[in-house]
Amino acid sequence: MESQVLVIGHKNPDTDSICSCIVMAKLAEHYGVNAKPARLGNINKETEYVFKHLNIEEPELIEKVDEGQKLILVDHNEKAQSVEGRDKAKIMAVIDHHRIADFETTEPLYYLAKPYGCTSTILFEEYKKAGLEIDKVYGTLMLSAIISDTLLMKSPTCTENDVKAIHELEKITGLKADEYGLEMLKAGTDLSTYSSQEVINLDAKEFEKNGKKIIISQVNTADIDDVFSRREELEFAIEKEISDKKVDLFIFVITDIINTNSKIIALGNEKALVEKAFNNKLDEFDSMMLNGVVSRKKQIAPPLLDVID
Ligand code: MN
Ligand code: MN
């Protein structure tokens, strides 16, 4: 039998990484590939809401891959965000909507990157091209991913293609994006059961540039002050992460999904980079308010990576 291809999203998976790996696996099957979705970490509460709503199983957890394992990457391409063992795996395809960084293969591959708000929007269009029917379950997976990544179309990363996909998927699923989406996003803001160490790792992404290691971690909330009230214990957890993982800069982003603002806490030897990137001073709590900023990918990582040169 032809060897199985694993379809994976990034570490600390978000709703797009989880939903898109399932959606992509079905598209790959349609093209005759023996594909299986897998995840690189626990699902968050927002994604849990989606799976409870659909009453389906989450993808299998994997921690590393063996040499020669065939992979399809969705929702990422950077090495630091991918599976352990990827260097010796065989990447067959990438479907992504992020910057392309440190990506190199020895053999040709399919690489589909679009500057859309969500991987699932790219896949939605690929299903249509392939003439593959989108049922309610797959439609809900796509819709959930797009709502999550675009913060219900409020993020500056949201494109016309994302909006169009959401409206078509509303018809397919019978769901109202505003109602279902708000409930889903709200489910993801419940941090009460997590330890500080868990909170700072829920949606953490690692970036490397010029030998500097940066982690940008983000949580969604309906009340910034509520999360900020845990500042002392969060700082303690961040400092531990910085020394354990030899991080130069750790930025913890608390994003208000209702008012579309973020407050950041920046720690580490290179925290001055944040002041340079956003042309503002960190206050006595090592924090800074970023008005109108909600997107790590478009509004936080680029100015920061720019000042590292
Ligand atoms: Mn993602
Ligand atoms: Mn995404």
Please tag this protein with its features:
309 residues, alpha/beta, inorganic pyrophosphatase (n-terminal core), Diaminopimelate Epimerase, Chain A, domain 1, five-stranded mixed beta sheet, globular, binds manganese (II) ion
Quick summary:
With 309 residues, the protein is of the alpha/beta class.
What does the secondary structure layout of this molecule look like, with pairings?
Layout: E1 5-8, H1 15-30, E2 35-39, H2 45-54, E3 60-61, E4 70-74, E5 90-96, E6 110-113, H3 119-130, H4 136-150, H5 160-173, H6 177-188, H7 196-201, E7 204-209, E8 212-221, H8 224-228, H9 231-244, E9 249-256, E10 261-267, H10 272-278, E11 287-290, H11 296-306
Parallel strand pairs: 1-2, 1-4, 2-3, 4-5, 5-6, 8-9
Antiparallel strand pairs: 7-8, 9-10, 10-11
Residues 16, 75, 97, 118-119, 149 line the site of one manganese (II) ion.
Describe, in plain words, how this protein is organized in 3D.
With 309 residues, the protein is an alpha/beta fold. It folds into two domains: 182 residues, Alpha-Beta Complex (inorganic pyrophosphatase (n-terminal core)), CATH 3.90.1640; 113 residues, Roll (Diaminopimelate Epimerase, Chain A, domain 1). The strands form two sheets. Strands 3-2-1-4-5-6 form a six-stranded parallel sheet. A five-stranded mixed sheet has the order 7-8-9-10-11. β9 and β10 form a beta hairpin. α1 packs antiparallel against α4. The longest helix has 16 residues. It starts with a strand and ends with a helix. The structure holds manganese (II) ion (2 copies).
